[in-house]
Amino acid sequence: MAVGKSLMGPSNTMHKLAPDITSNVTIPFIHIGDATAQRIQAQGYRRVGLLGTKFTMEEDFYINRLRAHDLDVLVPPAQERADVNRIIYDELCRGIIAAPSRRRYQGAMAALVARGAQCIILGCTEITMLVGQDDTSVETFDTTAIHAETAADFSIG
User: Fold this and answer.
1) How many C-beta atoms lie closer than 10 Å to residue 157's C-beta?
2) Cα dist. 141→13, 22, 35, 127, 147 in Å?
3) 146, β-bridge pairs
4) Strand, coil or helix: what is 55?
């Protein structure tokens, strides 16, 4: 989607293709990871918990982008990552909001906080359908909202 004189892709997982996109355009690309990292840094956090699709949680394209902003990124252990991913694709993408899944996410967030996460990145557009600020003891960062706000700020100068 073109925004003013910039380009953005409103999906955390699809930012895996950011290098291919940026190598083929001449206008700025607003990276969702950069926008999120900058917002987190502005709040003074350094150690973050990350929830998202398995690609976002397990592959370097997103985590390394956050690390480039000097953030320490924690992800859930393998079984929790699998559950988080399954809930996204099997439930949230289908509009299913289930209490057991909410409890699973709350547990995953609590475990990240227990490991030292100062905040939680809700790194998938669908996650906020299930959980939000009231579901954890630390601040959450909705990457979709942050990305949209960053693009709007960019477009108005």
Assistant:
1) 5
2) 16, 25, 11, 11, 11
3) none
4) helix
* 21-68 tens-digit pLDDT: 555 556 565 667 888 999 999 999 999 999 999 999 998 888 998 999
90-120 pLDDT per residue, tens: 999 999 999 999 999 999 999 999 999 999 9
Name 73's bridge partners.
48
| Cβ count near 30 (within 10 Å) | 20
Task: Please state the domain extents for the chain.
Answer: 33-143
Torsion sign (Cα): 119, 124, 127, 132: positive
3-state secondary structure of 29: strand
Q: What is the DSSP letter of 38?
A: H
Topology of domain 33-143, per CATH? Rossmann fold (3.40.50)
Dist CA 48 CA 66 (whole Å) = 9
Q: In what order do the strands lie in the sheet with 119-123?
A: 72-74, 47-52, 119-123, 139-142
Enter the DSSP assignment of 10. S
